[in-house]
User: What shape does this take?
Amino acid sequence: MTKFMFSRLLQSAMVLWIVYTATFWLLMATPGNPFVGEKQPPPAVLHALAKRYGLNHPWHAYWAYPWRAITHGDLGPTISYQSWTVLDIIRQTMPVSVALGSMALLLALWIGVLLGTISAVFKGRWPDAFTAALSIAGISVPSFVAGSMLLLFFSVYFSWLPPGGWGRFSQLILPAFTLALGFLAYIARLTRSTMLDTLSADFVRTAKAKGASPLRVVAHHAGANIAAPILAYLGPAAAAILTGSFVVEKIFDIPGMGQNFVNACINKDIPLVLGITMVYTVLIVVFNLLVDVLCARADPRIALR
Assistant: This one.
């Protein structure tokens, strides 16, 4: 276990450095000047602004940014938002994105496992066909199309739910379901295939022969064996939900990190893009590490190597 954790920490450090390097130099190569707006400032002003944000010498900025973040916990000031630092924006918007992503992941997990189990139990009947149709739609339709359709149906036509914003539980339902739809569909198909294989296993037939009820067979005997593949998928799913929230937050006008990331990319706010990118990368690395450990705990046959 100690060797595994040490190895993964080294891999995580390499991943963080590669992501930082690629993001930094892609931003520097992007055309445009973040300090030029509707009016062209004088060259002396542009030089002073570039020096203030450490962008006048790219190689110096490349090494100074991570050193300042590690030693002082400072991600620097933002270019787009005066008197705000990158850390201030992340502290204010990260709870919103985490709440939205957590709700979406819980919806995808609960509904996906339920639909997949029902589909496997009623194989070849209408619940199976309904789950298959929903899965195809969830995987095929992009999140911005699904979000627009849900807005049109539930907010414009029937006025059942608010079209956007943040602060009430009703404002969380549409964006969370939009974000969860694709992952819900995949979890449902994964649960169905795993459950079908498990229900045909010898120990399930033995449990039925001993008089176990169908509910106990599905929930206790077969249900325990679908945990490992679903847990293995939750790591990439959590990462994709975090990055997928960029579009959803923009559609539903949610003040999370995703919307600030999109605005920072448009304005070429290099410090803000770097800060949000590294925060998301750290979360993804941590999620994948937790999933590996949980999979090993759920299934003793999986070795931590």
Remarks:
- The CA atoms of residues 55 and 61 lie 6 Å apart.
